[in-house]
Amino acid sequence: MTGLQIAFLALSAVMLFAAWKVVTSDIIVHAALWMVLSFVAVAGIFLTLHAEFLFAVQLLVYAGAITALVIFAIMLSDIRELRGEGEPAGAGLGRRVRRLVSRRLGLAPAAVAVGFAAVMYSVYRATPWPGLPPGDPAPSTLAIGRELFGTYVVPFELASIVLLVAMVGAIVLTLREGGREKEEKRP
Amino acid sequence: MIPLSWVLVSAALLFGLGLYGALARTNAVRILIAIELMLNAVNLNLVGFSRYLSPHDVTGQVFALFVITVAAAEAAVGLAIILMIVRQRDVSDVDRINLLKW
Amino acid sequence: MPTLPIVGEVDTAVLVAQLIFLLPELILAVTGTVIVAISPLLRGRERPLVFVAATGVLAAFAGLGPSVGGAGEVLARMLVLDGTSTFFRPVFMLGALIVIGLSPDYLARRQVPAGEFYALVLFATVGIMLMASTHELLMLYLGLELASISGYVLAGMLRSDARSQEASIKLFLIGAMGSAVLLFGLSLVYGITGSTNLVEIGHALTGGAAATFRPALLAATMFLVAGFGFKMAAVPFHMYVPDAYEGAPTPVAAFLSVGLEGAAFAAAIRVFVTGLGIIQPNWAAVFAVLALATMTLGNVTALLQQNVKRMMAYSSIAQAGYILVGLAVATDRGISAMLYYVLAYTVMNLGAWAALIYLSHNGQSEELADFAGLGRRAPLVAWALTFCFLSLIGIPPTAGFFGKFLLFSAAVDAGLFWLAVAMAVNSVISLGYYWNVVRAMFMEEPATEEPLKASPVFGLGFTLAVLGTLLIGLGAAPFFRLVSAAVVTLP
Amino acid sequence: MTEHAWLIVVLPLVSWLLISAFGRRLKNEGDWLGVVTIGVTLVLSLVVLWEVAGGAATRVSVPWLVMGDWQLDMGYLIDPLAAVMLVVVTAISFLVHVYSMGYMHGDARYRRYFATLSFFTFSMLGLVVADNLILLFFFFELVGLASYLLIGHWYENLGPRLASLKAFIVTRIGDLAFLVGLAVLVLATGTTGIPELRELVEHHQVPATVLTLAAILVFGGAVGKSAQFPLHVWLPDAMEGPTPVSALIHAATMVAAGVYLVARSFFLFEPSATALSVVAVIGGITALLGATIGVLQTDMKRVMAYSTVSQLGYMMMALGVGSLVAGMFHLWTHAFFKALLFLAAGSVMHAMHTMEMHSMGGLYRKMPVTAWATIIGGLALAGVWPLAGFYSKEEILNAAFYSGVSGAGFAFWAGVISALLTAFYMTRAVILVFFGRPRDRHRYEHAHESPPVMTVPLAILMVLAVTAGWVNAPISHHWFGKLLGEAEVHLAPIVTVLAVGATLLGVAAGYAIYALRLVDRRAVINALRPVYTLVRNKYYFDELYNATVLRGSLRLAEWAAWFDQRVIDWLVNAVGYVAVKLSEAAGKFDLSVVDGLVNGAAAVTVGAGRRLRTIQTGFVQTYILTFFAALVVGLVVFQLWRL
């Protein structure tokens, strides 16, 4: 087993564990923090796959920006969840069991999720995936830059419209009541 | 070298976890986080394939880049929607948002 | 610095020259941006923006000029000019134009920020137009997201209305999930074929990849079916649709039901027929099952609705079921019938929604009781709505009749006899709930005799939809030629 | 003229558009426009018939819709069959138009009525001349739509509303069969042109089984439109429409469309003994069914309605036993005397404002023209020599007598018995309404003869009801039959004896019971109590359909709702629900109570009975769960498929 493989497995384990904690932790802020760890691990995996540029983007956008957004939203939203009151409480093992079978954390979600993973695993097992192609991977940053402003310049511009829409949307939805409306009613 | 199937399987597991999170938790912010996990799984797929198709092919990485961009936009809109609801109804649990049914 | 082999090096000059083919989308996007920029300056006097938006769409129609007759992939293979895109781009613009015309009264009454509304409709239109005119998965995804994100925001635009909020969050959560599933499928397709261009994907698959990677390919296909099924409102991926349409502002629901659904069908044609044509038996079978489930469940459930807006949501599910027959058949005739039906559906469905918008901006809700006596209070609207319903049921000589007839005969032709019969039976079922509304309009006493009002712009939009339903039906011949030319053939 | 026959179809269309658009500004709301237009088409139709009788025939077909290798033509085919039908439709429609000017005078939607009448005529004429089955189907649907509008003309009342919907839906069920039959034909032959199909069938290019299947399915369409058993239930209810409309529907348009469809596609039936038998037997059953129910109706219009059902059965029977001529001939004669009967009934309605025969009586003195119209129409219907009905009925019975089709024997006896019953109930109706002592003094005092605009059409129809049969009698050398291509006529004396005997017996029985009161009505009813109840309740068909079809579809919907709500929710909640229940049994409040309250309130708002119609839970997560469950199931199925 090479060092790269070990690194991959370790990162993968961290990523999945963090994701598990994201789903199961009772306090939503904890979940958000676990999410950061999961994203960082994903970034690490990108590095093992020689995607340095994406590594950086993943850290900046996901682990940075999106996390900040999420935490921001949590702070602005449900105070009860911060204290862990949003989910059914209990103690010890009993709490865990209860949570697994409570109204929404039912068996059906688990069954669907496990079913999904199992099917995908069998699919991947049954598919003869190619090995690593010969040749050293080129540094990807330059190549991505060229592609982005060459072949993919139209999608690049399109993405900017998507961001514009998101901005307009976020503003229009969260503009405080009484801001614009009141102004409109003023003679 | 890392076998491609390792990448794919861990991506599938991550997707599955995200799926479980989306189904099992009722808080809208958590569902959003779970969706982000799923998108990360997709990115793992894309980057992994990109690496294994050809040493020079970066299409998958470019695709992943766009997925990240869109995910950020989506998260912004999603959080704005959640915020809007929380402000006016003081709930963020989706199982309490069910005026519309039948 | 070592010289690096760059994949897909493009000539900038060519790229710039080819931007002319993107003119309609550019005009729409620029119009949207301008509206966003100037609407804060108008301070509540946003009504004139409807003319800006409509002018933008009309200019975009004109901008189609250079693209007409063009063939092949342009703009570094990001845009494809062929019959299908020539067909769909104006259809979607027509839909957007009608929606814009129907909206101003509603927006004013319900205090929806009009500037943002028009801008988002225009942006979403850019998205759905690009979805229908690209072979590039990345463009497809971006177009879809552009339309979807605009849709999430649009649905929530009645900010203080709990139902609108709910529609928005449901649309968002499930939509984001649908996108994730679609993306997962796209990533697998990319991994299997090494390309994100549908033509290349088709070549790679016929070149042996389909056999080698069959398990993964089948899984990817299922992901794509689910992802597109979600956007098409196909059962069982439909469950968000009634809630989202009922809660969303009515013009938005109208737009989503024709724009997003239509674009999903357009994109699905490209992905499945051009890209995954080699495993046609597999996906066609799934679509056949989905078609049956979708039309039956949509119609049967619509029978029970008391809220007409919700009924229309189920009706659009049912209509999606009919359209799916085209994919289930997947012959040239099936696909062209499907295209024709999407066109017919756009106008007739918008015509039906227009009546709902009309009631709504007159301060009424959309319960069945609100339709009582509409035949007396607003005879023109009532008759137009009846006509659109006849079309949705499939009574000649409306557009809907020819659409159903074409799908029906395509299914028969392909040997899917059971599906054809199911379609016919379903059209009889649908009679029940449409008739409910017609009966209320003409045969029940109105609560008040007070006549209802509408602005001329609304009248124009409505007329466009109803005339379209009539013309596309009666003068079907040129439209038939159009869709025959637009067919994407199976390899 | 024949080559310009399209004018006949287009004129009513123009009239419809003009009345709809400008009627408000025209004199008398444009009624004269409709009358004049239909009058012109009547003249044109007569010219066409004249020319066709002289050997002219034409077919014009132009490509209409072309899509790839597929093409739909639009064209018209004028042959003797179409020419005869054109005359029937335009003549009846013209008289109904004239009569309506009096009958509908002062109606709130007078203009709409005349516009729709034009539209109805247009649809029917289009159907008649259509040269391919798809176009024919197209007009078939339009006829249904138009009759829906007309039956529901007085939509303020519940009766017309329900009746119009019933007509629309029931006939659409038949249309469904027709459509599927069309699909079979297209699949097997690749064409829908009537002459082309005939060519193919005559050259044995179509497999026999396909032909039988297609014929039976097409017949399904006719069963719906022509109110044949078991889809006859809509026709009597269609009485709720204005009486002139009933006359039009019963005589020349709606119900004739089904018979005409079978006649038009008769070449499909001819080679198939099975298809013919089906038609003959269904026709026989319908004839008996209509006649028996007609005997016990007390509403004058309903008597007429069931007599139409019965007579339509006759026509189908005639076609089923292989005689196109007999069927069309009866359609022809029936059109005149049935229109006469309905318009006369309308005249009575106009005077009495009721249709209940037990509150009439003695009207002969007040309304002699109407009385004579009913008497002549009744005699023609009963088949008394030398009135129209005699010739066509005799022709049918002869055809059945000589036919080799299995089921023809049944059809023959059904025909004879129906003849007896028909004579009986017509005698009964005439006596109850026009003779004896007035039973409702008040109404009787106010009764008066109708204005000339109504009585003149009656007079014209009276003449036609007497003479219409002569076109296929020895006196005209069987002109009608020869026109439609019948070689020679066999007439068995025994058949004539039986038919005349049955008719006379019927009349005599009716006269004995209702005029001379030789037999006590009650005694007969008591003796036959079970049969009486069964027939009085119209064999419980409506109840049967309510219990099965209506209930069934409601069940289906409820089941879908139940599935969505229960099963899916159950999947999510199953275990959790138990846990919640257990934990909260000791808790402060029971979630289910809250749930119950919320649901209860909702149930109240949407009305009782909607409880089970809850389609979706409203919970996002159940939606997501369904989505992914379907995805996973799909993935598994796909992978299994691969193996």
Pick out its properties.
heterotetramer, A: 187 residues, mainly alpha, Four Helix Bundle (Hemerythrin (Met), subunit A), disordered C terminus, D: 643 residues, two-stranded antiparallel sheet, 27 helices
Structure description:
By secondary structure, chain A is mostly helical. Chain A folds into three domains: about 1-85, NADH-ubiquinone/plastoquinone oxidoreductase chain 6, subunit NuoJ (Four Helix Bundle (Hemerythrin (Met), subunit A)); about 100-125; about 140-175. Chain A is built from nine helices and no strands. The longest helix of chain A has 25 residues, at about 50-75. Chain A is globular and about 55 Å long. In chain A, about 40% of the residues are buried. The model of chain A is unreliable at about 80-105 and about 180-185 (pLDDT under 50). With about 100 residues, chain B is an all-alpha fold. Chain B contains three helices and no strands. In chain B, α1 runs antiparallel to α2 (about 30-55) and α2 runs antiparallel to α3. The termini of chain B are far apart. The mean pLDDT of chain B is about 85. Chain C has about 500 residues and is an all-alpha fold. Chain C has one domain (about 10-490). Chain C is built from 21 helices and two strands. In chain C, α4 packs parallel to α15 and α7 (about 135-155) runs antiparallel to α8. The termini of chain C are far apart. Mean pLDDT of chain C is about 90; it is low at about 1-5. By secondary structure, chain D is mostly helical. Chain D contains 27 helices and two strands. Chain D has helices at about 5-20, 30-55, 80-105, 110-130, 135-150, 160-190, 195-200, 210-225, 235, 245-250, 255-265, 265-270, 275-295, 300-320, 325-350, 370-380, 390-400, 410-435, 440-445, 450-465, 480-485, 495-515, 520-525, 530-535, 540-585, 590-605, 620-640, and strands at about 60-65, 70-80. A two-stranded antiparallel sheet of chain D has the order 1-2. The radius of gyration of chain D is 28 Å and the shape is globular. The model of chain D is unreliable at about 565-615 (pLDDT under 50). The interface between A and B is large, with 88 and 73 residues.
